[in-house]
């Protein structure tokens, strides 16, 4: 009996769920790694005699590492394959985290934290490429969006584990806190064992027999290469030449929208108590407000995940930028307003930006072909982390020099730049198979001037 069903239309299986766990672990570690250093730093600094300069460098070291790791991971994943690079991140997590246990200087800690950041950067392109190349069409968006929620889960776990270890671990507890990432790295390594190579990547390299064997193993003997949409073989093209062939505009879209969506988020998330204080909220208002905002970031991402298919990628992104930008604009205008209004606007921003947050990993994985998919995610990851680092660095300076009102207006301006770029460049990919979504043949026509947030027609 012939089987004409595409692998993109199969029901979600145990393999797909396990793959989501395998790939989601990278996002979990990212949230954990970036948060654990903040908790440990109060003990690390006096123990190692760190100067303010080295405190700042160590705090930023992982972000710097992610910048280099994103580029590196993207290139290596496209060139050497998904499966081989899948184990680089967990291996580095184990080695670098265990080494932090015996660290004796700020310089050594900086180097180890930097390499941990490189591992995180490598994770994004390889983990998301694996996920999108195996996942059925209907589950692709929600599964990629779930990775953003796992980032917050990792950050929350870091706070719980870090506080517990520092409270009950004695004088040297900070060493156990920094080394704790090794446990997650080891679990990630174990759970990823047995993952097959992506058949799409194998076909892009002309390795059809191996691709056929993987398809039969994952989907069953009734499936073969005939059930996979036709795959282009562009292995003779470089990343640069593919960008020049028309994907440069899409790379610009991904880089700009991703960066515009993370700069205000990182700034707000890192300095929520400081920002709330500048808005004349103090004491219980500030502490409860910080917790509420963190929870609303998670809720916003969860809502975005639910809407990513039903509302569509393009509509979700435009609405997310529009309403979160207006919330920041009102925060600037109402900076001297009642505490409840301030918290309401902050909460609205955290809630509405969730749509853009979850699309950071969906869009670059859907709108680029197999040959450069991981490279595109790597570039997006790297460039957005520059924005995050700059935003985080400038917030306290901005609050001190130009005040809270102007700082909020700048954040709103950055968000509206994301809206404008998305209005002109964001395609709709929700109901398309992966190869159609990555094709340049059906480029979206220029938007009409009707003023409506219209859905892309195809």
UniProtKB/TrEMBL annotation:
Q: Which Pfam families match?
A: Sugar_tr
Identify the residues that the record assigns to the Major facilitator superfamily (MFS) profile domain, covering every copy: 19-430
Mainly localized where? membrane
Q: Which PROSITE patterns match?
A: MFS, SUGAR_TRANSPORT_2
- Subcellular location, record wording: Endomembrane system
**Transmembrane portions of the chain:** 21-41, 53-77, 84-103, 109-132, 144-161, 173-191, 251-273, 285-304, 316-334, 340-363, 375-395, 407-426
CDD domains (alphabetical): MFS_SV2_like
> Is Transport among this UniProt entry's keywords?
no
Q: Does the keyword Kinase apply?
A: no
Region described as Disordered: 436-458
Give the way it sits in the membrane.
Answer: Multi-pass membrane protein
Instruction: Kindly state which keywords UniProt assigns to this record, in alphabetical order.
Output: Membrane, Transmembrane, Transmembrane helix
Q: Which family does it belong to?
A: Belongs to the major facilitator superfamily. Sugar transporter (TC 2.A.1.1) family.
Q: What is this protein called?
A: MFS transporter
Q: Which organism is it from?
A: Candidatus Pantoea communis
């Amino acid at each position: 009996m012939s089987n004409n069903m595409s692998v993109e239309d199969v029901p979600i299986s145990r393999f797909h769920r396990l793959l989501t766990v395998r790939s989601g672990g990278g996002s979990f570690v990212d949230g954990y790694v970036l948060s654990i250093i903040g908790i440990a730093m109060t003990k690390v600094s006096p123990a190692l005699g760190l100067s303010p300069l080295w405190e700042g460098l160590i705090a930023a070291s992982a972000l710097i590492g992610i910048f280099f790791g994103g580029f590196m991971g993207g290139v290596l994943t496209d060139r050497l394959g998904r499966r081989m690079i899948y184990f680089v991140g967990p291996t580095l997590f184990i080695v670098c985290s265990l080494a932090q246990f015996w660290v004796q200087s700020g310089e050594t800690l900086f180097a180890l934290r930097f390499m941990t950041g490189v591992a995180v950067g490598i994770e994004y392109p390889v983990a998301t490429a694996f996920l999108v190349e195996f996942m059925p069409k209907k589950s692709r968006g929600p599964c990629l969006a779930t990775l953003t929620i796992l980032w917050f889960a990792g950050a929350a776990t870091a706070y719980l584990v870090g506080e517990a270890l520092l409270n009950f671990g004695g004088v040297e507890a900070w060493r156990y806190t920094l080394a704790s990432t090794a446990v997650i790295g080891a679990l990630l390594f174990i759970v990823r064992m047995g993952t097959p190579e992506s058949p799409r990547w194998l076909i892009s390299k002309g390795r059809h027999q191996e691709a056929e064997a993987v398809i039969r193993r994952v989907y069953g003997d009734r499936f073969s290469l005939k059930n996979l949409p036709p795959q282009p073989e562009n292995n003779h093209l470089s990343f640069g030449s593919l960008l020049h062939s028309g994907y440069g505009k899409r790379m610009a879209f991904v880089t700009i929208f991703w960066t515009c969506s993370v700069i205000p988020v990182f700034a707000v998330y890192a300095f929520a108590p400081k920002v709330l204080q500048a808005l004349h909220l103090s004491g219980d208002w500030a502490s409860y407000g910080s917790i509420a905002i963190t929870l609303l970031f998670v809720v916003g991402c969860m809502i975005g995940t639910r809407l990513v298919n039903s509302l569509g990628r393009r509509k979700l992104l435009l609405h997310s930028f529009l309403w979160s930008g207006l919330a920041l604009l009102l925060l600037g205008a109402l900076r001297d307003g009642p505490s409840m209004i301030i918290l309401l606007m902050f909460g609205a921003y955290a809630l509405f930006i969730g749509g853009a947050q979850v699309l950071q990993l969906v869009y670059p994985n859907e709108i680029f072909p197999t040959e450069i998919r991981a490279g595109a995610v790597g570039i997006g990851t790297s460039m957005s982390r520059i924005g995050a680092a700059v935003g985080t660095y400038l917030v306290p300076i901005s609050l001190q020099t130009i005040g809270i009102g102007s700082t909020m207006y700048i954040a709103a301006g950055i968000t509206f730049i994301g809206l404008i770029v998305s209005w002109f460049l964001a395609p709709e990919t929700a109901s398309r198979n992966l190869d159609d979504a990555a094709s340049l043949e059906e480029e979206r026509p220029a938007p009409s001037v009707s003023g409506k947030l219209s859905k892309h027609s195809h």
